[in-house]
Amino acid sequence: MSAPAIQMVAIDKRFGAVAANRGAGLTVAAGEIHALMGENGAGKSTLVKILAGLQPPDSGQFWVDGRDVTGWNTAQALAAGVAMVHQHFMLVPTLTVAENVVLGREPLRGPRLDRGAAVRAVEELCQSTGLQVDAHRLVADLSVGEAQRVEILKVLYRGAKVLLLDEPTAVLSPPEVAELWRVLRRLQASGATIVLISHKLDEVMEISQRVTVMRQGQTVQVLDTAQTTAAALARAMVGRDVDLAVQTAESQVGEPLLQVRGLQVAGHRGPAAIVGVDLDVHTGEILGIAGVEGNGQSELLEALAGLRPYRGSIRLAGRDLAPLSVQQRTAAGLAHVPEDRHLRALVLDFSVADNLILGKTAQFTRRGFLDRRAVADHARQLIADFDIRPPDPQAPVRGLSGGNQQKVVIARELSRNFQVLLAAQPTRGVDVGAIEFIHDRLRQARAQGKGVLLVSSELREILTLSDRIAVLYRGRIVAVVPREEASESVLGLHMTGVVPAEAHD
Amino acid sequence: MTRTAWIETLFPPVVALLVALVAGDVLILAYGQNPAAVWHLLVDGTWGNFYGIGQVLYKATTLCFTGLAVALALRAGMFNVGAEGQLAAGGFGAGVVGLLLPAGTPWILAFGLMFVAAALCGGAVAAVPGVLKARFGAHEVIATIMMNFIVLALVNYAVAAHLHTPETLHTQSIASGMVPRLAEIAPAFHGSAANLVLLLALLAAGVVAVVLFATRFGFELRAVGLQVAAAENAGIGVGRTWIRTMVLAGGLAGLGGLNFVLGYKGFYEDGFAGGAGFLGIAVALVGRNHPIGVVISALCFATLSQGGLAIHALVPKQMVEVLQALVILAVAMAVPEVRARVAQLGLTAVARRGQP
Amino acid sequence: MTLLLFLWQTLRIAAPYLLAAAGGVVAERAGVVSLTLEGYLLSGAFGAVAAAHWGQSAWLGVLGGLGAGLLFGALHALASVRFKADQIVAGVALNLLAVGLTRFLLQMGFDSSSNSPRVPGFEGLAHPLLWLGLLVMPVLAWVLAHTRYGLRLRAVGEHPQAAESLGVSVAKVRWLAVLASGGLAGLGGAFLSLDQHQFTDQMSAGRGFIALAAVISGGWQPQRAAVACLLFAAAETLQIQLQAAAAVPTQFLALIPYALTLVAVAGLVGRSRAPAALGRT
Asked: What ipTM did this prediction achieve?
């Protein structure tokens, strides 16, 4: 038997106090599609980054085609045909597709860049793989799905034989996912080896031949996909039996609390991102907003929170929010868990205690001075209530795990006197335990008669929590579906605009 | 403080000192002099006698104000390169108000009015870049630099065309509100310019510390400086904070003008700022934007400035300007390097402990 | 005739702006903040005079200006690229260094605190750097758009991680860009001092900052930055002619370029987009 395409043994990697990999291993045969599964923080990405040469392991060894390549760098990996398709796109938005693809290995004619050759190379690759993208367009103008195709083109242009894909479907709509599977199968047929990181059971079951399951930095199981079940994979991943059935919500929906009419919001780069949205959030209701990322979710929330100008009307309990600043909206009863925790929700160099009073400093101020004792008491209370670890009010938030950072945000927002909570990606990058905790808190808020607007790119999360689900597509609500009628397939169709908007509402 | 925090705090000044020494040696040798003799003269002319100490204290007073002006603005994420113009405007304001006051004005009233004038003039000059950044997104570095040129030219025009005493570039002497020299209390300082504005500088450092770390405004200011988007999300008016901070910073720099006008000469003179505003950047940087650090580093840079005069017999005093610039450069290079090394040190220490 | 004179004077004033602004475009498009243009101009002016004096040749002066600019560019690259220093702080420090060092050397070499003796220079249209100034922006535009280095430079200024992940050395691209920036602006300084046949203390007089403002208000595009430079120069020419004609105080007229810069930076920077990685290490 020939050597496996990839073999990694006893890989250790630490980041400060966190052990990302502890004796992890991975063996992939040439020409297979191999899934690497695990919960957030299981160490999947770290292992693959080591393989791609992005970082060296602390200890352990790995071979590619039988050759010991432990600790190589990206250039060496690329030269050997091993390349990573990044989760956060590594594309230069101001350059064209063709320029992005050839960057670093540009075709020349004399001293000049040979643009024609670059375009031809891209078009040939598109033909042979079935990837569709216009080589002349600026990357800034591409959808996320198209940007991902460019990422794949980039590594193929460099002659990659082993493709490492890190959560490639996180930003794709269901039809785009299907399209990606077609491309991957075609690449496999032409001899490529593919490693796919995922934490979604259905994808793994559909596309892979074998699965390596990781938990807490260790490799716990390697399975043939055909001979396993989703339930078995879930058990291996979490380490205990998991109820895969989606819990249905039970609630007492009441009066409309947040009313949005004719909302229009300009996007980050100019063109309108929200083009006429109407929606209502009632007391005791969680309204889920489903949609592929980049369809206006960020702009919708920022407009609601008062961070971005808009046209149309937003009313909270009948009161027009238009003239109100962020601060006044908070006082009027709005709480907001922003989607980007590191950018908007937290001041990373502040302590836990200081982060817990962001946006409510007024109540801790006496004659202009901060009441440090009250701040500390407040922090201790919330740390206990929300089980924030370490339980140290003075610890800098930067040093906390993702889950605990998010708990700080949730604690701060839920401890306000609010009527409506805007929650964007509330469990992104958060470990399993914290996810359940945060979901419980959202349900509690609903039970207390608050309204919750939940935006999430995880359909499962939307389905688990929401009473009604609105689907956002290209800046419009294209459907509002009651929970009982919603399913991943129904929502998936709406998310790509397949069902015309007129058929609903 | 933890061990790594100490390294992060102390290492940059040490690097700065070493760089100054080595570069100084090179320049001195290039000039054909003996480094040991020059350094000896420098120390002797500064901390070697009370006159020297007095001069150092005098220079440190102005630097303390401009250093605070830079440090405070940096805490809010604004790079204030305009302390030079703000300082000049403050001195000018105090000088002009002083001229308007009749000879019999009670001291406290005269001093108070000139104090307010200095702070207001400095603040007004700094407000322009603050507003331009908050309203139009104009980069404050270019705006403050341009304000320096504009203010210095305007003040120069006002003095040269209307206010100067014949044959000079300064205004008439003011009649009331002068601040006593240090020598009036401790005669040993006789002849030096050191004066009680020094106490005002220390007080200012204390006030800045309290504002930064104990008030709601300071909390919001630091949040804006560390992470604009998060501050915005918390309902903090970012533009408002920038403008207020710049006005405060400009006011601090403006108060520095009192040191020259009220503590030393008794009139405004063109060019009195003489680079103290720019040096404030170095002071803030080496003092790590902390009021206590600013006080200490103001003393160090004042020593260097005064030392330049002391060594002028052997090497041109411009050598000191070179050293000061190199010190800023060295600290700017050392800070990220030290941070990275310290982070690595922390990691390996943890990893070592983590092993069985 | 007056129009010709006006154009001629505008071009003369524009030449150092164009050279410095070209340097600014190169460095900033690679992601390195160029407050140092002022220091390059000043050191270049001194380097040119020192070399021209030493060799009694204006052409040697050109080399001297280039060399001094390159030296300061190397210092900026060392601080900002190698040591990842805050680029604004490094820029401010280098500008102060240029002032201090030129003063020190002026004292040491020419025993003066204000100016150098008269050195060989260039007269009128024979000033080679004038022509270089006129050519530099079109050439730069071509290099940015059509060469491999241009493509890499633009990529590095927008998304250095992406470039690095494709095997493009961000450090190498930035070193080259900052060196080129220093060299170009150094030549701008050489234009100044060789045009006047001597060096005077602080003779750059804020021109580097004005050039940077031209870069910003030109949206970091060579052609538009060139237009901005010419507009600044035209305004200055107008000011000089007014000064000769009218009784307006010179101090007021001297403010025009600075006030204009302030307006330009406030009015335009909000709308044009800076290279995304500018100032980030």
From this structure: 0.91
